[in-house]
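Section 3.1: Structural characterization of target chains.
Under the original work plan, the team committed to producing a structural model for every single-chain target entering the pipeline before any wet-lab resources were allocated. The record below documents one such target. The sequence was received from the expression subgroup and is listed exactly as submitted; it comprises 372 residues.
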Amino acid sequence: MLPHDVGKDITPYVLMDTAAIEQIRAPLHRIKIVVRAMWVQKGQGAINLFPYIKNAFPDRRVLSLTGDALKASFPSIGQTLGKKMARKTGYTVLSSKLVRCSTTKNDTIPVNIQGRKFFLPVQEYKGHFWVQWSCAYKRKEKIEILLRWQSDHYVPLLQADSTEACKVFDFKVKKDVIFDGSDTFLDTKTGYLAIQQAVEQSIYAGFQSRQAYLLKVDVPFVCSLKYTIGDTVTFTKSTTEVIKGRISRLKSFCDCEHAKTTLWINFSKETVNLENIRNSLQHSVQGVAKNKEEKQDPGVPNTTHIEPEHLIKCVSVRNAACQQGKSMQNREFASKTDLVNVLKENLTEIYLDLHDLTNKQIFSRNYEIVKN
């Protein structure tokens, strides 16, 4: 900005017909604003997985011939769940309990050991399995706003013309926050303010590009001795136009007939004020950012609306009591040790396949401004 002090008037000293004005910076007719937001959406909660474990068993009954081994392998409090046991995957056991149902009369499986018949009891279990989940979704969002100069301000350009050049202003926002009720940044109040600030800075640069001018005049050498680079001067071009600016360069020329100095003066035709910026800002971003894509990102829910299917891929059971019974029933064993070895090879096992909530993948979305 130019200083507001009263400049030295050079009008009386300017030699006739030497004043020349040129625009020293190309005006920005079109502006492309790109706002990129990179943020991590965090959330946490708890879920009882035991009902889903029961659903994996036949008839929703947790039955096994090897219940003691099943109980011993059941996850304990504080244990981390997931395939990547060497690091956190987003799941920690809060409370775990697996006990035998004492009031239930269960079936038995007959087996033969050295000609004698024995009956293996089928054990039923109940309990709970509370797991705390903590997610951290990496999100990357982008919005592009095209502005065009029209009627003394910048207005949105709905359809881009690839043949027309434009100045690109790129802004980046980084956040690590938790949003309640939103899985995006750009259509929140904070995101809107980020867009508004980016547009405001771009419009300011656009206005400045339209106001950078250079005045070139010649004055007598003797008169130029009172001026130095950086001085603020004024020049009355006409009765309605007074130019005020700073001297950026001086060059003197002397011969036997003439002694003159050329002054280069940088000036702006008008001041870039907040009112001009506000007017353009209202025309540019008087709306909200909305997702361009119709479909939401698959498997990337809002952290405030986590459903079981967002956590659980599948729950499966290997060697439930019914499968164990089919392989053991009326089977002849040489000894009890032989029976125990066969049972060890057919232990009841529960498999939990959970979504990795600390996935390295970055989920991207593109947005556009939609008018209210």
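The chain has a mean pLDDT of 80.
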